[in-house]
Amino acid sequence: MGLGEFLFLLTGLKWTVALSAIGFVCGSVGGLAIALLRTSGVRGLERLAAGYIALFQGTPLLMQLFVVYYGLALIGLHLSAWVAVSIGFTLHASAYLGEIWRGSIDAVPRGQTEAASALNLKYTSRMKDVVLPQAIRISLPATIGFLVQLIKGTSLASIVGFTELARAGNIVSNQIFEPLLVFGIVGILYFLMCWPLSLYGSHLENRLAVASR
Amino acid sequence: TRPASAITTEEIKARGKIIVGIQGDNPPWGFVTSDGKQDGLDADMARLYAKELGVTVEFVPLEVSNRIPALTSGRVDVLFATMAMLPERAKAVQFSKPYVANAIVLIAPKSVEIKTNADMAKVSIGVAKGAAQDTQVTKNAPAGTTIRRYDGDAPSIQALVSGQVQAIGGNIFYLQRVEQARPGEFENKLEFQKLYNGACTRLGEKEVNASLNAFIDKIRANGELKKLYDKWMKVPVHQFPDSLEGIPFSAS
Amino acid sequence: MNYVLDFTPVLDGLPDLLAGCLGTLLLALGGMAIAIVIGISGVVLRDSRHKPIRWAVKGFVELIRNTPFLVQIYFIYFALPLAGLRLDPTPTAILALGINGGAYAIEIIRGGAQSISRGQVEAGLALGLHKGLVFRLIVLKPALRAVFPSLTSQFILLTLTTSVASAISAYELTSVAQRIESESFRSFEVFGVITLLYLGISWLMMSFFSTISTRYFSYPVK
Amino acid sequence: MTTHASIANAATTDPMIVMADVEKWYGGFKALSDINLSVRRGEKIVLCGPSGSGKSTLIRCINHLEAYQKGEIRVGGTRLGDDSRTIDAIRREVGMVFQHFNLFPHMTVLQNCMLAPMRAAKMSRSEAEATARRLLDRVRILEQADKYPAQLSGGQQQRVAIARALCMRPSVMLFDEPTSALDPEMVKEVLDTMIGLAEEGMTMICVTHEMGFARQVADRVIFMAGGTIVEEAPPDAFFTQPRHERTRKFLGEILRPH
Amino acid sequence: MTTHASIANAATTDPMIVMADVEKWYGGFKALSDINLSVRRGEKIVLCGPSGSGKSTLIRCINHLEAYQKGEIRVGGTRLGDDSRTIDAIRREVGMVFQHFNLFPHMTVLQNCMLAPMRAAKMSRSEAEATARRLLDRVRILEQADKYPAQLSGGQQQRVAIARALCMRPSVMLFDEPTSALDPEMVKEVLDTMIGLAEEGMTMICVTHEMGFARQVADRVIFMAGGTIVEEAPPDAFFTQPRHERTRKFLGEILRPH
Ligand SMILES: Nc1ncnc2c1ncn2[C@@H]1O[C@H](COP(=O)(O)OP(=O)(O)OP(=O)(O)O)[C@@H](O)[C@H]1O
Ligand SMILES: Nc1ncnc2c1ncn2[C@@H]1O[C@H](COP(=O)(O)OP(=O)(O)OP(=O)(O)O)[C@@H](O)[C@H]1O
Ligand SMILES: [Mg+2]
Ligand SMILES: [Mg+2]
């Protein structure tokens, strides 16, 4: 494999980073909203959030992207590839993060919410200052785990025409016919992208652990 | 279902650009080079056609599985995407006249005797999922033959090389790749079918189809197609049939 | 000019698709079984007294979590034969899914174990239970309860990831669907139907997990 | 004492807390039955009774930490419904010290005390900090201000919980065994703090078995058993001439030194 | 009483617990300094002192829940090292009741009590259940046997914690404020239980401020302040003629009714 092929993989990497960034940002915002709805205590909203989670956790991301990009186009709604992946990743990531965070919010002892309520803290402050900081600690390993899967899941964006890292690897592999070598390098590049996230996760974990033994 | 974005040659000319669906990872038909340029026989065909219309080309690299959806949903105007002309496909898209021929073959070790379709039952066979060789091997192999379907050409060749299968179905370019990995061990055993590739448009879009057919007739006549054959296929230009069972070349 | 949806090829293939669903379920359940074993024993080993074991577990987690599943499954399928170990597609897929899911499960369960207050562990120790028993009897259940939604999510993801196994020709829903699609070229119809089938399988899994959750984790908490 | 909200300014003849026919079930277990209680503004009530008799449950109902199934509770004239507005209004006036402290583990002692004043009462940071430090000092724990709850002894945690509740300057305080984890010296200091609050006119309901405190401060002592109020009387009457057999038995244990 | 392990069978002239020059640091904070203490087999010690003086820390060191930085601790002649075998063996003989109870939330009361006897002491299920029921009855909580900890009141939880520790039939018991959450009636019952244990010859160290109990049961009272042992004496001498100023001040608060 020559330098040219390697540089080609790096341009794919660039797209992967951009797609991951979209997934992270949109997914986290959406996920937080879903988690809060799911734990709101309002029956209707909780049902709605649970339905959303069941629907978008249960369908493959690839299918979501396909439906948003090609399916909607079929009925005349032509979304650009960027909009399509943004929608697809948001639906997917917010469902998963929403459920992960919902679980950790539920795992914070009830006495904590009670104490906050008794101090007359409003919902926002109760969540932001009391519950979420403790929930984050429980959900951190799972969250990091999902985010690295999301990075790798961006490879599915090739279905709407992005030549991201995995697709670039495919192209190179079909040119030089050394799939083990090419996918080995692609694997390493993914590793280099995901690993810092893992490291950051453990760093954060240690910091939170110091605060509340 | 409402009409997808139908388009005419006039509209393409007015836009100054034709959007072509093409394969990105299937040399020498259609592939992206390591400096990111679209290349291959299909790419050159598309460029010639664009020149004919006097417009520029925008390539949309596609995978095997989203070629037809990209066309039917209006994401591209036309496919030059190694689309083998098959009757079932012709129900979903409108083929033009054929512009290149391909053959589907079975590759196996020299030591294994495979002379007839029935002999295929002796081995496990790998194919690229959804490609023409998949269809052909599935159709011709005796019932009960182990057929393993992989994601694309490279993995199916890798499966042969690493011994996960004993034979693979492939096209005329496969053997040369297998030779690179394991020289002297394999040979072409059976040839199933001559396949023709055509350009595709949406069903019912008469104008673009007609213009494509005229274009193909023209390059066959003026020697442009021969140049492409010399560049990519390295064989003489094939004889193309005037009709294929169940595959109309012109839109009705 | 009209793309007319035509479901007949998909409906004709429905028996095959349903058989594919069973293949998917087999891969998913097999993978999950391995993953949960790896997950729980990984959490224990990660806390081992012996440094090499701890590092091995951490290394395993980092390696598996941070590389694509496709690379892992290709590695087991294509590279291990070079070392003399040749596995068929289905065992390969189950093994790969189990290893992959296991790495995530280790981390998820560990997160749960961290949320258990030190007082719980101390109480167990003070009663004369040794460390392993304290984990098994006292920490594990509340820890699993705390992260059960995350664990469920991971296993749903694992279920959907089985589709990647079609890349090495394992028999499951996606491979069946791709075959039908390559014969009929009815992409929209095929994709639509298998999306519903995947949704059905996921819902089956979700209700399986929620049954477990209400059966085993329904003790009241403060 | 500063009274700074509607509830506190209601006509002073109104009772501050009224519970009428309150009944509370935990699933199939009846934890409170027929609770009728009226507490005047500035009144100090001591609540005692055997373990499991419903004392914690009762005071948790007052600021709606537990929903109840029958009857009515009014605080400062506001009926405690499910409407979050009224619940907020009530909680602004009602402070609570929990039996299990429920400190926020991810915040230091000082942060625990400053959170609510800043977020709920919109105090400025410097004002909140000054208040917090003053009250932490009052319960003799200022030097631990930068520690986390997990680094404190049981008694220290309890004192932080008291300071945290007082930082909101509530007009009603509910104490759930505020001295259980304290040594006698500290008990005295905390009780002195509470006596100080009492003298400032705060309305107080205190679950405690410190009978010295009851004698000295309480306007009324309420004795609960099995989820009902068995007896209520001024401390003198309560200790010297209890009317019910159950009360006498209970007092017998208290007054006889072990 | 059945003594069923090596430690309990060691020569009876040996002291049961020896702490020599023990020092314990939490990071930069010295929680215990120069602790020297020897407890004979069957001796009852009451440990008291102001909040934060290191009482909990001291007893937690004895069964090695806290590591200490200097000195030596021996239990039943076995030196408490880092070897997990000896630690496990010691913990099986040393029961502990925590200040915060630490019940297992996912087990019913009965299961909480049966767990360690079955898993650590290899008792049969039926024997473990019988023991558990007997001891739950002794602390008057048998009727709650099938509830989960979260469904119990504070005092009920505390009694479960005591029963749970006793189920292991330890030869040494460490109590950390075992009556803090109890009402006076219950305090009496629990103290009676403890007196019963004391009479059976159990070695006990009890952090408590129930001075009645100290008077009646303790062989020695130890007063701690600021991480050191300030004074130790038999109860009579301790209450009537305390030698140190600090002790006198502390006792002043206890003995004067509020
Ligand atoms: N969540 C619950 N589910 C079922 N029963 C409960 C629950 N919470 C409390 N109880 C029961 O309700 C009764 C009253 O509990 P409460 O906590 O009010 O008692 P208490 O008077 O405060 O006792 P203590 O002095 O021991 O704290 C107890 O018998 C307890 O077992
Ligand atoms: N993890 C920790 N980090 C730092 N300091 C700690 C930690 N745990 C306890 N301390 C400090 O050590 C001292 C002794 O604590 P300990 O819990 O032994 O007190 P105690 O005598 O039991 O008090 P109480 O009667 O209030 O329970 C206290 O001042 C406490 O703040
Ligand atoms: Mg209570
Ligand atoms: Mg203590």
Automatic annotation (TrEMBL), chain A:
Keywords: Cell membrane, Membrane, Transmembrane, Transmembrane helix, Transport
RNA-binding keyword on record: no
GO BP of this protein: amino acid transport
Span of domain ABC transmembrane type-1: 13-201
Membrane topology qualifier: Multi-pass membrane protein
Signal peptide positions on this chain: none
UniProt-listed InterPro entries: AA_ABC_transptr_permease_3TM, ArtM/GltK/GlnP/TcyL/YhdX-like, MetI-like, MetI-like_sf
Matches recorded under SUPFAM superfamilies: MetI-like
Entry GO CC: ATP-binding cassette (ABC) transporter complex
GO MF, any single term: transmembrane transporter activity
Gene3D superfamilies for the chain: MetI-like (1.10.3720.10)
TM segment ranges: 15-37, 49-73, 79-97, 135-160, 180-200
Pfam families in the record: BPD_transp_1
Top-level lineage group: Bacteria
Compartmental location: Cell inner membrane; Cell membrane
Keyword Repeat included in the entry's annotation: no
PANTHER family for the chain: BLR6398 PROTEIN, MEMBRANE COMPONENT OF AMINO ACID ABC TRANSPORTER
Entry's family note: Belongs to the binding-protein-dependent transport system permease family. HisMQ subfamily.
Record protein name field: ABC transporter permease
Species in which this protein is naturally found: Ancylobacter defluvii
Lineage of producing organism: Bacteria, Pseudomonadati, Pseudomonadota, Alphaproteobacteria, Hyphomicrobiales
TrEMBL record, chain C:
Organism of provenance: Ancylobacter defluvii
A GO term, aspect molecular function: transmembrane transporter activity
Signal sequence annotation: none
Family: Belongs to the binding-protein-dependent transport system permease family. HisMQ subfamily.
Keywords: Cell membrane, Membrane, Transmembrane, Transmembrane helix, Transport
One GO CC term on file: ATP-binding cassette (ABC) transporter complex
GO annotation, biological process: amino acid transport
Residues annotated as domain ABC transmembrane type-1: 21-209
Subcellular location(s) per record: Cell inner membrane; Cell membrane
Keyword Transport set for record: yes
Transmembrane segments: 17-45, 66-85, 91-109, 121-139, 151-171, 191-212
Membrane disposition: Multi-pass membrane protein
Lineage top rank: taxon: Bacteria
Name of the featured protein: ABC transporter permease
Gene3D superfamilies the record matches: MetI-like (1.10.3720.10)
TrEMBL record, chains D, E:
Name assigned to this protein: ABC transporter ATP-binding protein
Keyword Isomerase: no
Domain of life, source organism: Bacteria
Record Pfam families: ABC_tran
CDD domains according to UniProt: ABC_HisP_GlnQ
Coiled-coil portions: none
Keywords noted in UniProt: ATP-binding, Nucleotide-binding, Transport
Family, per entry: Belongs to the ABC transporter superfamily.
GO molecular function, one term: ABC-type amino acid transporter activity
Ranges for domain ABC transporter: 17-251
UniProt xrefs under SMART domains: AAA
